[in-house]
Amino acid sequence: MKSKWTDDKPRPYYAKYERVPVQNGQNWYEVYRLPGNVLGICEPNQFQEVNFFLIPGSERALLLDTGMGICPVKPLIEELCPGEVVVVNSHFHFDHIAGNHNFKAVYAFDDPYVRRVAAEGLPKEALGNQLEEIMFRYGYPEGFSPDSFRIPPYHMIPVQDGDVFDLGDRKLTVYHTPGHSHDGIMLFDEENRLLFTGDTFYPGALYAHFDNDEFGKFSMADYIASFERMSELIPRLDYLMCSHRDFTAPPVKLKEAANALKAIDAGEVLDERDVDEGHTYLEDGSRLCEALFDGFSVVYKKTV
Ligand SMILES: [Zn+2]
After folding, report:
1. Quick check: is 272 in a domain?
2. How many angstroms does the Cα of residue 207 sit away from the middle of ligand 1?
């Protein structure tokens, strides 16, 4: 397999943030202090470059997502936050839920795909090409065995649009933002002018093509509608807090992403290119293409 990942340089964007030294990073997780008193946790040495967030409040903290499950995450969370932690999923894809089973319960949007994965977990086959060694920047970390990997079941508590997580001095409101994934949610921290966007937006390749049991069903109409709805919050935001690559992005990207998807939907995008195989997961890469925009791209199905 060919992947641009293997040629890539270490990412420059982490240098924008203060690194938080930790004992339980397992040489795998890195922790950074982000705007609005949020801790960003990342897994920078796997192709996904997934991020998740620990959002402290005066009475409890909220952990948004639990990562890929490559290395144990519970000791890190306990080190960073010894008190009560409420765990929430941005959506049910494998790179955000693999540590869920370490926690008593996980709040997630109610959806048939989510219920099935919560009840049964996921086998390693559901990750497609993502556990191949080429997807790891420095090979497999110590103690990780791809052959025995699986995502265990977890206890899910459903949330709905409009629900509020009250952390004491901080409140986070749930917005249901289907599109990339039908169960996608964002969390709005109005006081701190932050929007946690999950995989609906991040400064990387946005996936607008899934249609299978492992990833659920993508909807272009929903995706555009979600961006249009969330764009109304732009004047009340300082940062998007994103679940892949750089932790933050400018709020105006919500509007730009809406316009990008509308252009793709209308067949008006001319500079398509073949998709990097790292993005193809379970798909036949020849059926997908990628269109480039300012600071992000969109992977979608070829129409011909
Ligand atoms: Zn993801």
Report:
1. no
2. 9
Taking the centre of ligand 1 as the mean of its atom positions, its distance from the CA of residue 104, in whole angstroms, is: 22
- Tell me the pLDDT of the chain (304 aa) as tens digits: 445 555 567 788 999 999 999 999 999 999 999 999 999 999 999 989 999 999 999 999 999 999 999 999 999 999 999 999 999 999 999 999 999 999 999 999 999 999 999 999 999 999 888 899 989 988 999 999 999 999 999 999 999 999 999 999 999 999 999 999 999 999 999 999 999 999 999 999 898 877 777 777 788 999 999 999 999 999 999 999 999 999 999 999 999 999 999 999 998 886 677 777 667 666 666 778 889 999 999 988 877 6
d(CA 216, CA 227): 19
Domain containing residue 81: 4-205+213-260
Determine which helix (DSSP H) or strand (DSSP E) holds 38, and give its type and residue range.
strand 38-42
Task: Determine the distance separating the centroid of ligand 1 and the alpha carbon of 200, expressed in angstroms.
Answer: 9
Q: 93 C-alpha vs ligand 1 centroid, how far in Å?
A: 6
- Distance from the CA of 125 to the center of ligand 1, in angstroms? 17
44 class by beta-carbon count within 10 Å (0-12 exposed, 13-18 middle, 19+ buried): middle
Residue 193 Cα to ligand 1 midpoint, Å, equals: 23
CA of 236 to the centre of ligand 1 (A): 25
Is residue 302 included in any domain, yes or no? no
Give domain status of residue 32, yes or no: yes
E strand or H helix at 175: strand 171-176
Burial of 270 (0-12, 13-18, 19+ CB in 10 A): exposed
CATH number for 196: 3.60.15.10
CA atoms within 13 A on the CB side of 146: 15
Distance (Å) from CA 83 to ligand 1 centroid: 27
The total number of structural domains in the chain stands at: 1
What spacing in Å lies between the alpha carbon of 84 and ligand 1's midpoint? 25
Asked whether residue 100 is assigned to any structural domain, the reply reads yes
